[in-house]
Amino acid sequence: MKRDSQATRRRILDEATVEFARHGIAGARVDRIAASAGCNKAMIYAYFTSKDRLFDAVFDAAVVRNVTDVPIDAADLPEYAARLAEQYEKYPEVDRLATWDRLERGGAGARTTTITAATAHKVEAIAGVQRTGLVSDRLPAATLLELIYAIARTRFDSVAPGEGAPVPEHRRETVKEAVARLVRP
Amino acid sequence: MKRDSQATRRRILDEATVEFARHGIAGARVDRIAASAGCNKAMIYAYFTSKDRLFDAVFDAAVVRNVTDVPIDAADLPEYAARLAEQYEKYPEVDRLATWDRLERGGAGARTTTITAATAHKVEAIAGVQRTGLVSDRLPAATLLELIYAIARTRFDSVAPGEGAPVPEHRRETVKEAVARLVRP
DNA sequence: CGGGCTACCAACCAGTTGGTTGGAAGTATG
DNA sequence: CATACTTCCAACCAACTGGTTGGTAGCCCG
């Protein structure tokens, strides 16, 4: 068959993203990833060394995209949070991968240099805006960021599933309103 | 050895709680549960039928305790959220079990009659207080409850791990302040 | 055109694991 | 004291699974 190692690697990563997001590390099956990627299991080990390293690659790719796609705007935290919520809506697997990482690996994936640097930058940006008085300093910058993350990740589907769950536009407004209240001076 | 089926069942449930909270369903090992419960694996199947049913029993016990231990007080939502946060601090396995349930079973455990009834009651209680004007109705009652849950579950340890993470008392005040802002009319 | 390298694969291995079986042992009762 | 019931167990089974091996086949280059 026609060969293209870059294409094979790409398909493995894509299908592994789906499999890990759905089943986590312990529940994912390397055989299933190979089957849906249309290649042999040995190829996965050739490119990624082990199941765990494959998860690393998947996690890093997903998280880097989130950090890149949604830069912080400390001057407009409600809007920033709304864009973050949209990103989670667009890529629900990212939150799932982050949650699997927290449960199965104690959050090790989130302690990479890329993420910790990005996070430190965000905290400093929020602290800066707090010093100008535009954002309340009743809560520390790091705490505020965690709350913004928690609110942006909320899907609003578990209390009243199927009914009253906000459509994306409502979710955006909900997140915006909630964060606006948190940061109001 | 002296026999006591109630005691054996209790030990299995306790050790299964630890194992499922730590590893989830796919990652938990029935052999490990048996070993730490000090009984034979066959006993687990005698009492609980299957690994999945054992998780059901563990989940139900943990969740029922949360619902029972922390009844809602719609007249003081910030304080209610603070008590909820304390409960999560006291029993961190509950949030983990709920999260595994969401990831591995699509939240099926949370859709039991006990929980949906308790939730409906809470939503109605919040809606009632909104009608009196004491709590803002900018956000629907169900949405407000989801946000309260999200805030109460936040551990404030992932943005600045190890440093600046609030001690329980600070966490309580942080949750209270955040929820007070959300519900302010 | 043939050799060598790269990309790929079917079959396999050794260990694991949820669940079962054919009992043994403790205990209660007649 | 013997029987029967309940609680418990060691060994086992069949299927599974992460990872490896001994290749094959496509393709490039001299």
Question: How would you sum up this structure, described in words?
Answer:
The structure is a homodimer of 185-residue chains. Chain A has 185 residues and is an all-alpha fold. Chain A has one domain (52-183): Tetracycline Repressor, domain 2 (Orthogonal Bundle). Chain A has 9 helices and no strands. The radius of gyration of chain A is 19 Å and the shape is elongated. The first copy, chain A, binds a DNA duplex (30 and 30 nucleotides) through residues 1-5, 8, 29-31, 39-46, 50-51.
Assembly classification? homodimer
Q: For the residues shown, what is the average pLDDT of chain A?
A: 92
Strand content bin of chain A: under 5%
**Any idea of the CATH topology of chain A?**
Tetracycline Repressor, domain 2
> Total number of helical segments of chain A?
9
Question: What top-tier CATH class of chain A fits best?
Answer: Mainly Alpha
Percentage of residues assigned to helices of chain A: over 70%
- Give the overall form of chain A: elongated
Computed structural class of chain A: mainly alpha
Measure the end-to-end span of chain A: 64 Å
Biggest interface, CB < 8 A: A-B, 42 and 42 residues
Unreliably modeled segments of chain A:
none
